[in-house]
């Protein structure tokens, strides 16, 4: 568990030079449905494979095999590792491989289910908050709405899922499917389904492409899904506050030796309070209950933080709320693909504060004339090594220029108050 929790840098290990910029053959919602009693695998995408068994299916969890238990015209054997990062060979090597077989004698059914199964893995980078959503829950949302666009019920079969992970995301998993999750590694009995889908569809980093969705769903629909899981229609705490509440700013913080810490955080907090914000320090840890985190983030009017996995909580912000990402030296591209694009897609008021050389702790060690300070793109080249990433993501802390940052906070405050006026709480 600790290996997962301390793995934030895994978010960057392979993606920078090897993440495909575009899938040349995106999934088509108009693709013809497979005929009954068939096994089909679509391997045309760079990000993922997707296999379906369109007919009665028997899962033998002991040997990770799914049998099409109806006769077909031909014998088929397919294999899949159901995790949407197939370009990362080292990571995919740790994903449990499933075998799909037709025209083979299947084992007897011991647990009969009337609903189809969606099978995927919770290994790989799962356990890192960013990857839980980027590689897990967003692709699952895409897959569910692509495979079952008419809200058909289904059962989740999640390979390699840890008990703590199932517990942490229990509310969200239950919103996908009200039925108990099946973890094959914990089972010895065979399970039978009317059909099965293996794999998760990904549209890229933290994104849902409405053009590829049968019902044109977007990230805003995913946010509504999260609201269903964690808000349950409850009123926001600020609605019962005094008649003129202060705009609430959540300052997402980082501590310890993880890098990208705001070294003058107290001064930043006081500056935001001086401008007019009610500031709440938010330091997410793996044990933070997600319903508690959602209530805080979703009831705020602004969120500010240095680029890092904790900013994945921006998915909890309401459309129209201010989200300001502080971008360290060397993290421009990451900031854009991980959080800036998703913020705009969700309708947030996105602001970006890119630090200068004098605000980076790297200048003390390497000097302001160092190439890694003056031109990070040239310094790192086309492939980020672990040593290079350690410099930009672990060694680097931030001391924000309060004079320059004041103007950004003033703009954030203005937009936050405008949001509150629209909501009728100013």
Shape summary? elongated
Number of domains: 2
Largest sheet: 6 strands, mixed
- Average pLDDT over all residues: 89
Compute the number of helices: 16
Taking all Cα atoms into account, the compactness measure Rg is 23 Å
Strand content: 15-25%
For the termini, the CA-CA separation is 44 Å
Number of strands: 16
Question: How would you classify the helix and strand content by structural class?
Answer: alpha/beta
Biggest sheet, strands in spatial order? 5-6-4-3-10-7
List low-pLDDT spans. Answer: 1-19, 24-32, 237-241
Helix content: 25-40%
Could you please describe the fold and organization of this structure?
This is Glycosyltransferase 61 catalytic domain-containing protein. It comes from Populus trichocarpa (Western balsam poplar). InterPro entries: Glyco_transf_61_cat, Glycosyltransferase_61. It is found in: Golgi apparatus membrane. There is one protein chain. With 426 residues, the protein is an alpha/beta fold. The chain has two domains: 198 residues, no CATH class; 176 residues, 3-Layer(aba) Sandwich (Rossmann fold). Helices cover 33% and strands 17% of the residues. Strands 5-6-4-3-10-7 form a six-stranded mixed β-sheet, with no helix packed on it. The chain has a five-stranded mixed β-sheet with strand order 1-2-11-8-9, with no helix packed on it. The protein is elongated, with a radius of gyration of 23 Å. The two termini are 44 Å apart. 43% of the residues are buried. The N terminus is likely disordered.
